[in-house]
Design brief:
The chain is α/β, with parallel strands linked by helices. It is built from four helices and seven strands; from the N terminus they run H-E-H-E-E-H-E-E-E-E-H. The protein has a seven-stranded parallel beta sheet with strand order 3-2-1-6-4-7-5, sandwiched between helices. Helix 2 links the parallel strand 1 and strand 2. Helix 2 runs parallel beside helix 4. The longest helix is centred in the N-terminal third of the chain and has 26 residues. The radius of gyration is 18 Å and the shape is globular.
Length: about 200
């Protein structure tokens, strides 16, 4: 290890300072965006919820919010994250309802109470027995879950035995997709299977 890369060295100090400045910038942008005048967000036309389990606040949450709103998802649920970079969400930020939860248990309890079936999107390495997303029939009333960019979801199949686990089939050599892309693919696959019929059906409240 080089001298300035040690935890106490100059390089380590600079990187910590950069992270603090980046986090402070995200907090400011998030607060500023949320304070802008806007009409209350209306739920999307589909009985579909996107769940983000302890995602990093810098990039993917905004992208997922934008994709969820584009595909007509009803809501986005954020677990363990209250502040995120709103830039990549663009105008979708105020067009889809966001719900915040401190734990997976609280989020899943609310989803089950509302009649949603929970489908977890994971890599094959993290979910060896997972079915392939493109080959399964997704539930009509569905909550899609994606996990942290490095650690994946914060629970195991044994923790929530009623969840279904699926992985996205890939054909190249890349080990895994980024979580924003994975979420968009899962949202597309659900709308491919259910979009037309679900959008025309009466909404359950």
């Amino acid at each position: 290890m080089k001298k300035d890369e040690r935890p106490g060295g100059l390089g380590g100090w600079v990187r910590r300072l950069e992270r603090r400045l980046a986090d402070a910038s995200i907090r400011w942008r998030h607060g500023h965006a949320m304070k802008r005048p806007h009409a209350p967000a209306a739920p999307g036309v589909h009985p579909l919820v996107m769940v983000c389990d302890h995602l990093h606040p810098r990039e993917n949450i905004g992208r997922i919010i934008r994709a969820a709103e584009s595909f007509g998802a009803r809501e986005v649920h954020l677990i363990g994250t209250t502040v995120f970079d709103p830039a990549t969400a663009t105008t979708a930020l105020h067009r889809i309802p966001l719900r915040y939860y401190s734990s997976v248990d609280a989020c899943f309890t609310a989803l089950r109470r509302e009649g949603y079936e929970i489908v977890v999107i994971e890599t094959p390495d993290e979910a060896e027995d997972a079915s392939v997303l493109q080959r399964v029939s997704l539930p009509e009333r569905c909550a899609l879950v994606v996990g942290n960019e490095k650690r994946g979801v914060s629970f195991t199949p044994a923790d929530h035995a009623d969840t279904r686990w699926v992985s996205i089939e890939r054909y190249g050599a890349t080990e895994c997709l980024d979580v924003g892309s994975a979420a968009a693919i899962a949202l597309y696959e659900w709308t491919r299977q259910w979009g037309g019929a679900a959008a025309r059906a009466p909404r359950a409240r």
